[in-house]
From TrEMBL:
Coiled coil: none
Domain of life: Bacteria
GO molecular function: FMN binding; riboflavin reductase (NADPH) activity
InterPro entries in the record: Flavin_Rdtase-like_dom (IPR002563), NADH-dep_flavin_reductase (IPR050268), Split_barrel_FMN-bd (IPR012349)
UniProt protein name: Flavin reductase
SMART domains: Flavin_Reduct (SM00903)
UniProt keywords, alphabetically: Oxidoreductase
Domain annotation Flavin reductase like: ranges: 11-157
């Protein structure tokens, strides 16, 4: 038997870059903080994100015609907290969050390390999560250089 607390403690030892996955829905724009992001394939260009089945964003991604993975910069910790629901989201429609709309009309957050815009490719069962695979339709580097890292339940920065 795997003890759930032990499982969490061990997984907290996995250092991960922090992303915000954005999408557009008739009810408005949406973003969710995600560390379960992984580049998957170059030909065709695919990436994946894993989203908990209970999350609002799970339903939104199931229905979405596209989504953007925004790789957060060190100084964007407040965005990670905001999109994890831990800080009040004063404006869910993004009017106070600097962004530009991408090819698919989805917000690309300004000031990130990079952004990756995807169309849905596949969704796989992952227990209490789903694995959403996206085909990359556009991507580019942003102005930032230093990543926001999540390790041992805390935000960190790289020690160069
Ligand atoms: C650092 C960090 C990383 C997270 N990574 C994920 C993740 O990879 N997948 C996920 O489903 N939720 C993840 N979460 C939790 C969601 O961001 C959080 O549950 C959010 O409130 C869900 O919002 P929603 O119900 O609007 O989708 C993470 C939270 C934090 C703080």
């Amino acid at each position: 038997m795997v003890d759930p607390e032990r499982f969490r403690d061990v997984m907290a030892r996995h250092a991960a870059g922090v992303t915000v996955v954005t999408t557009a829905h008739p009810s408005g724009y949406h973003g969710v903080t995600v560390t379960a992001f992984c580049p998957l394939s170059l030909e065709p260009p695919l990436v994946l994100v894993c989203i908990g089945r209970e999350q609002q964003s799970h339903r939104l991604l199931e229905e979405a015609t596209g989504w953007v993975v925004n790789l957060l910069a060190r100084e964007q910790e407040f965005l990670a907290e905001q999109f994890a629901g831990r800080a009040p989201l004063a404006d869910p429609r993004f009017s106070r969050i600097p962004h530009h709309l991408g090819l698919l009309g989805i917000p690309r957050i300004d000031g990130c390390l990079a952004w990756i815009e995807c169309r849905p490719w596949a969704r796989y069962d992952g227990g209490d999560h789903s694995i959403f695979v996206g085909e990359v339709v556009a991507l580019d580097l942003g102005p930032a250089d230093d990543p926001l890292i999540y390790f041992d339940r805390q935000y960190r920065e790289l020690a160069w």
